[in-house]
Amino acid sequence: MRKIYDVAVIGSGLIGVTAAYELAKSGQKVALLDAGGLSRGASSANTGLLLFEGASDNTAMELCRDSLTEYRNLNETLGVDTMFQKLNLIIFMQEEKERKEAKALSDTYKSHGFVSDIIDNETIRELEPGFCLEKVNGALYLEQWQMDPMKVVYGYFKRFREYGGDWYPYTPAVDFIYEDHRILGVKTPSDTIYAGQFVVAAGAWSRELMAKVGFDLHEYYINGAAMVAERGGCELRHGVYPFANPRIRDEQAAGRMAMEVGWENVAPIDAMEPALIPDVHGNLLVAERIHIGPEMMGAMPASYLRDMAASVLEYFPGFSGSRIIRSWITPVPFVPGGQPFFGFVKPFDNLFISSGYVSVLVMAPVLGAMTKRMLLGEDPGYDVREYDPMRFER
């Protein structure tokens, strides 16, 4: 018997489950499938920070602001404790030339109603006495929040199932069946799932999926590595990381290179971000070691752990007594220019993509509702023209 749905959502990270939840809640018959288990990618391998500091346009800031309102009510909406709480950031500068850009960002955040300021080293020392300031030249202080990403994913997933949604774990999308301007079904190793509309929300795997319908999606990925450690002798009350983010810089360089010579020909790039962030469970999320290149890494080299620990010890000597609890490495998507893909993919009139966000966690609740509205033929409620998946084809 054919399995026929109103919508098939491919990818069970935060973007996929929020879209599936909203669609099922509105009465749509929804299938949610994933090549692995629930939220096996970047949605579960992160700091849990609701980072609107990565928002690069007014629409993104509006999405962040409105999603924060949703997060404040999410425990009641989902029936789970998402561990939503405030965690302000100290985004430290190392060079005087960074101050002008930091001031402009601070003013932008203030204009959208967030607390932000430029602080000097003396203020940093008062806020974080264990912070070694030898290479620090002030900081951007930013109001911020965090949550437990897996609790949020699980909460949305639980509600999706309660609204009658069907779940297909360990069910990779092998290929699509399509003709003319419509996708008819998605093939899996064991079956074909047919639907009226399809949503691709597969993060770093979205490019591979879109290639199956002949679409060259200019979305690439980093292999992001991080680890969790006990606090040990490191008492930290803020999230701390550098203003000059090598990840963003190197992503854009790799993106430009990929569009010129092809993603498979991009020369590998490695970078380190010496971040230290308290998590909602009382531990520390440590650094980020990135590798950019066509190969997805499935295991973390031991040297990465040493690199990450060394980068943090330079700024927090008290971290030396901390014990590492766990670590991860996972592909994280990025798009040249920093703008995500959100919308229908031509020539198909029923293929929708939502992927490539700089900081997906903070926008997810609103993005799920926007996806539902667009699939139902309604106005998304925000100006998403700059997120058009077809913009690189013009």
Question: Main attributes?
Answer:
alpha/beta, four-stranded mixed beta sheet, 394 residues, 30% helix
Characterize the structure shown.
The protein contains ten helices and 18 strands. It has 394 residues and is α/β, with parallel strands linked by helices. The longest helix is centred in the middle third of the chain and has 16 residues. The chain is globular and about 65 Å long.
Number of helices: 10
Distance between the termini: 42 Å
Proportion of beta-strand residues: 25-35%
Mean pLDDT level: 92
Alpha-carbon Rg, integer: 21 Å
Write a compact overview of the structure shown.
The chain is globular.
Question: Could you outline the blueprint of secondary structure elements for this entry?
Answer:
Layout: E1 3-10, H1 14-25, E2 30-33, H2 58-72, H3 74-78, E3 85-86, E4 89-92, H4 98-111, E5 116-119, H5 121-127, E6 139-142, E7 145-146, H6 149-162, E8 166-168, E9 175-179, E10 182-187, E11 192-200, H7 206-211, E12 220-229, E13 239-242, H8 246-261, E14 269-278, E15 284-292, H9 302-313, E16 324-334, E17 341-344, E18 351-355, H10 360-375
Parallel strand pairs: 1-2, 1-11, 2-8, 4-13, 11-18
Antiparallel strand pairs: 3-7, 4-6, 5-6, 9-10, 10-11, 12-15, 12-16, 14-15, 17-18
Helix pairs in contact: 1-6, 1-10, 2-10
